[in-house]
Amino acid sequence: MGRAKTKTELLEATTSQWDVLQALIDSMRPEIEKVSLFFGADFDRPEPHWGRDKNLRDVLAHLYAWQKMLFDFVDANQNGTAQSFLPAPHTWRTTPALNTEIWEQYQDTPLGDIQEILASSHSQIIELIGKFTNEELFTKKYFPWTGGTSLGSYFVSAAPSHYDWAIKKLRVHNKANKTNSCLRIAPSGFLLRGSLDRHGDSSNIDEISVNSEVGLSLTRYGEGKGTDA
User: Fold this and answer.
1) Taking the CA atoms of the chain, what radius of gyration do you get in angstroms?
2) Lowest-confidence range among 25-39, 170-184, 188-202?
3) CA-to-CA distance for 224 and 220, rounded, in angstroms?
């Protein structure tokens, strides 16, 4: 996914990645709504989210929680209340702990409820982007409360880049399950080719992450908040 440089490109990227995510989930139903995520018997990646998110609900709840932080961040600062993007006392260095708190918060929330509030949140993202000009979105430091980056970077991080993270994660699960199914039915002595390697589906998810997962655009697109912003 290319870097959004204009309001139009940001809207297109957000809509496009959302559509890809929804189509992927639809293609994996009904199993994906009932099973635990599985990335392969020998899958071994160090990023915390691989072990943290157990199912589709956890992935979608993570997306929703980060969009809610964006809404709170923009709303508070536009109304004259200084507020950082991450809730106190967290910093970019403590996002793994924050993400664990988010995971715990939604454990009792049904998948259907998460899907509903995420869909509503996505619509709000589109609406909110529309309220800003190109200059307001993509001029670094245009708003003093965005730090050294642009407001658009926060939108990219919370929506298209985070959707991309979820898409790649679900694709690793999908590929691992197809490979596992083939292994179960393969004739004795048949050597399977193209099995899932440790990077699964060439995701390179950690290339689009801060702290291996979040603040995605701030690193990937060179907008540069850094992990301790």
Assistant:
1) 18
2) 188-202
3) 9
CB-count burial class (<10 Å; 0-12, 13-18, 19+) for 21: buried
Pinpoint the alpha helices (H) of the chain.
Answer: 7-28, 48-52, 56-78, 95-105, 111-130, 134-138, 151-158, 160-185, 216-220
Cβ neighbors of 40 (< 8 A, separation 6 or more) are 172, 176, 179, 180, 196, 198, 200
pTM metric for this prediction:
0.80
Q: What is the pLDDT of residues 61-97, one digit of tens each?
A: 999 999 999 999 999 999 999 999 999 999 999 999 9
Distance CA 70, CA 47 (A): 23
* Residue-wise burial string across 122-141, b where 16 or more C-beta atoms lie within 10 A, e elsewhere: beebeebbeebeeeebbeee
79 class by beta-carbon count within 10 Å (0-12 exposed, 13-18 middle, 19+ buried):
exposed
In this structure, the number of other CB atoms found within 10 A of the CB of residue 59 comes to 24
HEC string for 117-177: HHHHHHHHHHHHHHCCCHHHHHCCCCCHHHCCCCHHHHHHHHCHHHHHHHHHHHHHHHHHH
Cα first-last separation, the chain: 25
